[in-house]
Amino acid sequence: MNKKTLKIVLAVAALLVLGVACWLIFGNKGGQPRRSTTAAPTEAPAITTEAPVTEAPGTEAPATEAPATEVPTDPAEAVDGHVTITVKDENDKVLAEKEVGFKAGQTVADLLEANFENVTIDNGFLMTLESLTTPADYHTYIAFYVNGEDAMQGVTTQPFTDGDKIEFINTVYIPADTTEAPEEFDGHVTISVQDQNNQVLAEKEIGFKAGQTVADLLEANFENVTIDNGMLMTIESLTTPADFHTYIAFYVNGEYAMEGIMTQPFADGDRIDFIDTVYIAP
User: Fold this and answer.
1) What is the CATH number of the domain that holds 105?
2) pTM of the predicted model, to two decimals?
3) Looking at the 3D structure of the chain, how many domains does it have?
4) For residue range 170-216, what is the model confidence (pLDDT) as tens digits?
5) Which residue range forms the structural domain that includes residue 197?
6) Is the dihedral angle over the CA atoms 193, 195, 199, 201 positive or is it negative?
């Protein structure tokens, strides 16, 4: 082989080596450099020994932010308190009952008119409410109670506070007993008025109190009583004439009274007689 041929062979061999090298480097992935198989091993990733933190279900900490308080935007919703208003018939059957909010300055009448039907008020007196009606003769009326006690004022002025229970009850009117209790006395006497023939014209058993006189008892219990200087001039139909030819004699327990009717003493159980008597001159 001559020198010329040798140069050609060497040149071809160099080209082959260069081509292989290029293929090895760039030919594996579309021209991307091929990693050397002799590269130093890469460092293994560090293994952590810290256990992952897991939260038990349902143990999430509650939110610390306080819930927002809803502020009414409508001024009519803001109240200063509440009362319970009940309407009952005469048998205590509840016809209507509501818990009602109120503002300072409102009256019971205001609450009734705003929350119930058929409300009629006359001079602070409740005449109608729901199905209740006060008749013209007032034999029934709508009684008004606050916390179980009779209201001391009408529905336009009666005070009340938060939490009060207000009741309106149809009630039968029962007139108060006007019968007076028997008057207590210190004793009783019987007083009789008789004509000249001892015919009884009037007779009464009369109670007396200490300090009263016969004159007091006559004036309080008989008709046509006239007294002049302690002397009985007229009683019932008896009259002492101007000439005194008759007079009204005065007896206690059948005995002629020694004193006039202003001063004559008497006691419980005594009998007192006034008898028309003809005067006989001595």
Assistant:
1) 2.170.130.30
2) 0.41
3) 3
4) 999 888 777 777 788 999 999 999 999 999 999 999 999 999 999 99
5) 187-278
6) negative
